[in-house]
Amino acid sequence: MMADNSFQQKKITISGSRSHTLDQARARLVLFAMVLMMGYLAIGLRMVDLTLLRHAGNKAETAGSEDIKPLDRPLRGTIIDRNGRLMATSLKMASVYADATLVDAPEKLAKSLADILPEQNYAGLLGKLSSGKRFIWIQRDVTPKQEYAINALGNPALGFQEEDRRIYPNANLAAHIIGYTDVDGTGIAGIEKSFNKQLAEGEKPVQLTIDLRIQHILHRELDKAVKKFHAKGGSGMVMDVNTGEIIAMVSLPDFDPNHVGDATDLQKFNSATLGVFEMGSTFKLFSTAAALDSGKVHFSTIFDATNPIKIGRFTISDFHAKRRPLTVPEIFIYSSNVGTAKMAASLGNNGLRNFYKTMGFMEQAPVELPERGFPLYPSPWRDVSTLTTSFGHGIAVSPLHLMRAASALVNGGIMPRPTLIGTEKKNNLSLIPDGVRVVSAQTSDQMRQLLELVVVDGTGSNAWVQGYDVGGKTGTAEKNQNGSYEHKALLSSFLGVFPIQSPRYAVLAIVDEPQGTEDTHGYATGGWTAAPAVASVIEQMGPLYQIPPDLERGRKDIEREMGVYMKELKEGSSLAALGTDH
Which residues belong to the active site? Predict the structure, then answer.
């Protein structure tokens, strides 16, 4: 019994010592487990921060950083041409950013990124990665191949945000019409700006009246003319004279909206709608129409163009002076400044001014683009203003103004409303409502005859296209630079209409400061530089639009008809007109 008790006492004593040791072990294990749990929790929170909460508070900590766009908004809507061909669309693209606070070796990472992203340079990347900022864009819209390569770096400081990228599949072709967006997808020019709300909703495409086939033809032919004559640039347009639909519109130089950051201000300037220019002799269309529509002037009326006109410090003379009395058709065919000025003077001081106002030359031309120019015209309007503006000097309008007003003169006398969208989306941008008669049907018919005469037997002969009965008017204006006209700085143009007896389309080409060549005998006028470009467009457009050519009535037939007509007109004219103010 004594032995048993002794053993039991010893056992109890040992148990008590081990118990204390076990308690200490348990405490250490609990503490270790808690440390592990806190470590896992910290790692988990950091992962949440890196993935879900990455951009929270970025703006407060990094001045100048940009917001990350929400992921759930719809893709920006498409823009299509009249035939449904794609002109602008959006794709989901990845953009890469960095947390500079997590970058351990900025030099190494900058070099790796520079190898993957050729658009970036090492110095710029190093500056970003060494900035200590929590959020920095490295590059917007990286390619899938670049995204894969960046992911393969396995650097926790880098992350991706899915964004929309605006794609313009036709590059420069219709840049001034479509416009472009900023990096956040907001339209800031062209149709992108005008229809920003509809496009942002992404539900319905914006369909234009533009025909990409004709746009391509006009762009190519105008570009050829600019290069051939070593010009600074040019602009052109094709319009349906009855509906006002713009089929094509070009402004050169242009730009690629996919890389708008590389474009200069000159390239982004839409000279077709925003630029205003003195148009020169193409304005004789309107002064002649004003005179005929007034009832005071007829085709047989004669004006003495023998000598230049001197008024104050101005002298009005003719480029190719005939130095004889001229009938109204002769004045128009030979583009006589003297005859045109005297014809305008017969309307009285405000006659031409009021007509120009009716034709829309004293307001912005209506079209669904934010880039629209304000005309420049004399104020106050004096006697000399009537004389000079009659042949396009002292008044400046946009090519769109010119096309709209010319369409009214040939379509029967009804003012159309220019549009890029069609009848459903026309905006009330003009003081002149749709469908208002601005000249009589008789005046419109007379203007068509005059336009045909110019091409058959006048300054626009290079615009002749066999079978398509083209009519038109040349224009050559000396540019006003620093208050004086420069003889060698010309704005040369041609406005053509076809088929002239039943007009459907007007085609305009303007060449900015062309230089004469050996082929043009040194001339850089509208008849030599712009008229051939218009002829080329019509020659290709006619068959494409299935307009059947009249091959039975050739140029010689028309010349013979016109010769007989002109002879009868001159024989029937009253020379008594020479005794008047004419």
Answer: 281
